[in-house]
Amino acid sequence: MRNLMLVFAALALAACQSPQEVRQSVAVEPASSPAVLPAATMVQSPTITPPGKDVPAKYAAFSGSWVGMLESTSEGRLDVQSVSSNGKVTVNYAWGVLDDNNPGEAAGTGKIVGNALRLGRLPNGADVSFQMLPGGTLAETFALAGKTYTGVLTKQ
To answer: What is the DSSP secondary-structure string of 28-81?
Structure first.
């Protein structure tokens, strides 16, 4: 119930923002009630913009849609929609149930440093990062309320 109230509060705050503001952290996208989502599902199909020729290959490798499991119990989905030459990305991220954390979806920005992509803090307070592994998979770390969940995502 507390998480649901936090989601509604985040939606209310996001609605008050001016449309001209550039969001630096992840913000909640309008979606059906989080309690209804059984797994990590996107409300809208992502638009993936291929990286330009000026984007280093180590950054371009993050572009696209990635899916996998956290702790073998919760689905996660990351859509890296754009990657710039300086490592900044725009993303859409969805997660399933993790302990008492309801499923949800967030859109926002992140930054690639070396072989790791770190997202801005999610509306539920989670910190999420992804490390590119040899073989082209992503190791995900999802930290929330003193707990850390891990998993591996593969490119779709």
So the answer is: EPP-S-GGG--S---SS---PPPPPTTS-HHHHTT-EEEEEEETTTEEEEEEEE
